[in-house]
Amino acid sequence: MILDLAATAAHAIRFEDLGLSPVALDLGFFTLKWYSLAYLAGILIGYWYLLKLVAQPGSPMARRHADDMIFYATLGIIIGGRLAYVVFYQPEILRHPLDILKLWNGGMSFHGGVIGVSLGILYLARKEGLSWLRVHDYVACCVPFGLFFGRLANFVNGELWGKETDVPWAMIFPTGGPFPRHPSQLYEAILEGVVLFCILAFAFWRTKARYKPGMLVGLFLFFYGLFRFGVEFFREADAQLMEFAARTGLHMGQWLCVPMILGGLYLIVTAKGRRVRVEPIAGSASVS
After folding, report:
1. How far apart are CA 134 and CA 233, in angstroms?
2. What does the pLDDT look like over 76-97, one tens digit per residue?
3. Residue 257: pLDDT over 90
4. How far apart are CA 252 and CA 244, in angstroms?
5. Are 161 and 184 in contact (CB under 8 A)?
6. Which residues pair with 33 in a beta bridge?
7. Which residues contact 150 (CB under 8 A, 6 or more apart)?
8. Nearest Cα to 271, choosing from 206, 205, 222?
9. For the segment 37-65, what is each residue's pLDDT rounded down to a tens digit?
């Protein structure tokens, strides 16, 4: 196996040859990283798409609710994503609590971001008298944008690479040792970003899924969990969690995906029973 990898390494793509840098703009006194731009792009494009969804008949919220939703979602992504990363992936940061605020050092958990956004939706729905589950449905359709850009940023940063392999498209990453590895960041960008978006877009625009509370968010949870669980078999476990993965047989990310898959499946199976006559908050018609 080592000989095969060594032979592949001689012809493998070297990450340095791609000419990529984590820094998008460096003015000396100000540095802008692609990772920051990825978050910004995901939020702004997601907001633009949410407005298109809200404009359709039977929407569970109006434009003003969507405006508020972006604020709460952004807070949820940052706070939930960071806290979950610290708790599940790098708890030693808790020894120095101020380090939790050092977002520029990296370290965000998507699973935590989901929880944070969900709490934001629950607060908004309670405050405005909205259907929290239907709002979840609409917001879920927008999340793949952030996933896509986030994974591309991981790739540009040369981080979160995959396991050693001899596949023709394997890459040698600067921090990944001398042998070629799966570019698992790109696998996730395609599956969690492009494919997941297409599934949700088809369900929203071509079926009546948006009139069955929980169907769209169920599809999101189920397929995201399934894609992430699968890709983790090609992705190297975080260095500080290698022992955990060896002991349990699965990566931390896979364990966190199990409740997502089961919860998503439950929402999908039970969605039809929750369908009621929808009186639009925005849009132009009631939908029975």
Report:
1. 33
2. 888 888 888 888 787 877 777 7
3. yes
4. 8
5. yes
6. 23
7. 35, 38, 39, 42, 110
8. 222
9. 888 899 999 999 999 999 998 899 999 99
Strands 171-172 and 13-14, by their bridges, are parallel
How many residues can be counted in the chain? 288
Confidence (pTM) = 0.87
Residue whose token pair is 């591309």: 152
Tokens representing residue 140 in the block = 């879920």
Tokens at residue 261, please? Answer: 């898959």
**Residues with Cβ within 8 Å of residue 149, at least 6 apart in sequence:** 37, 38, 39, 41, 42, 193
| Dist CA 278 CA 285 (whole Å) | 9
Residues 6+ apart with CB under 8 A from 123: 72
The encoded tokens of residue 89 equal: 């992936």
Measured distance CA(70)–CA(82) in Å, rounded = 18
Determine if residue 231 is left, alpha or beta; phi over 0 gives left, psi from -120 to 50 gives alpha, anything else beta: alpha
- Phi/psi at 282 (5° precision): -135, 170
